Amino acid sequence: MRTMERILVVKLSALGDIMQAEGAIHDIRRHHPRAEITVLTTPSYRTLMERCPWADRVFIDPRDSRFRLDRMFSLRQRLRAECFDLVYDLQQVGRTDFYYRWFFRGTPWVGGAPGCSYHCRRPTDRSAADHFAICLQLAGVPVVHTLRCDVSWMADDVGDILQQAGLDRRPYIVLIPGGSAEHPEKRWPYFGELAEGLLAQGLRLVTVPGPDEMELCQKISCDMLLEADGRYLNIFRLAGVLKNAAFVVGNDTGPTHIAVHMQIPGLALFSDHIPAVFSGIQHGRFAWIERARLAELPVAAVRQKVMSLLENTR
Question: Which residue ranges form the domains of the chain, and what is each CATH number?
Answer without folding.
Answer: 6-138 (3.40.50.2000), 152-313 (3.40.50.2000)
